[in-house]
Design goal:
CATH superfamily of the largest domain: Fumarylacetoacetase-like, C-terminal domain
Number of strands: 20
Number of domains: 2
Helix content: under 10%
Structural class: mainly beta
Strand content: 35-45%
Radius of gyration: 18 Å
CATH topology of the largest domain: Fumarylacetoacetate hydrolase, domain 2
CATH class of the largest domain: Alpha Beta
Distance between the termini: 33 Å
Length: about 260
């Protein structure tokens, strides 16, 4: 089921959670009443339904933190001419970096090279601490697309990744969270720059899969409902420039589209 967060295009400030349904003519959002991760994820529908075209996309989740993983695809490690890591390489992206589907990535003046990175992201559904990988699926609400936008020149310059990864607008997320992914380790993932295919891989090429990442990360820090684990990018990373459009497409999840200025 595709789960999202929206606002009506009339300018109304109220936010809606809802699930997507489609027929041959249109797509609709079924509005959920008082959604909370803490209420066992039980959906209570209001009975109201809006056409998708009536709504503005918001980030489908509001994380307290995004825990991202570097160098986690075999093909990307080969591209970067680096050996495979023995443990996940972690960094944090701030929640202030999050923007929605159709939102705009803003290139900061401090950077001359800003790159896209197509990633599968796992959304945490309940408080996770010291979770074993065999139980990890019970703690994951669903999966979405995330663009780990990176100021590549600053990443090369700094010892830590915080500045290069943490600018406002550097974490596009969405458009939906897919809650019914049975095997997150076998999904096609693609990235398109202005309609041209730039990244193409499969999550089977992940060095550490989402369940292994959840075990490792929750052994370090408590993950709260709505937090995101972004699992790394495959090969084919490249630069974003003013006027570009970048899209991430992940099998069974959807396509995240963002503009650049």
């Amino acid at each position: 089921m595709k789960f999202g967060r929206f606002r009506h295009k009339t300018g109304e400030m109220r936010e809606y959670y809802g699930t997507l349904s489609t027929d041959k003519d249109a797509s609709f959002v079924n509005i959920i009443e008082k959604f909370s991760f803490e209420e066992d994820l039980r959906y209570q529908y209001t009975g109201r339904q809006y056409e998708l075209d009536e709504l503005e996309f918001l980030p489908p989740v509001r994380p307290t933190k995004i825990v991202a993983v570097g160098l986690n695809y075999k093909d990307h490690a080969a591209e970067m001419q680096k050996k495979l890591p023995d443990e996940p390489l972690l960094f944090i992206k701030p929640s202030s970096a999050v923007i929605p589907h159709l939102g705009t990535i803003v290139r900061p003046e401090a950077s001359k090279r800003v790159d896209y990175e197509s990633e599968l992201a796992a959304v945490i559904g309940k408080t996770a601490k010291n979770v074993k990988k065999q139980n990890a699926a019970d703690y994951i609400f669903g999966y979405t697309c995330l663009n780990d936008v990176t100021a590549r020149d600053l990443q090369s310059k700094d010892i830590q990744y915080t500045r290069a990864k943490g600018f406002d607008t550097f974490a596009p997320v969405g458009p939906y969270i897919e809650t019914e992914i049975e095997n997150p380790s076998n999904l096609q993932i693609r990235g398109y720059l202005n309609g041209e295919l730039k990244q193409s891989s499969n999550t089977s090429n992940l060095i550490f899969n989402p369940y292994e990442l959840l075990e490792f990360i929750s052994g370090i820090m408590t993950l709260s409902p709505g937090d995101i684990i972004s699992t790394g990018t495959p090969s084919g990373v490249g630069s974003l420039n003013k006027g570009d459009i970048f899209e991430i497409e992940i099998e069974n999840i959807g396509k995240l589209k963002n503009f650049v200025e």
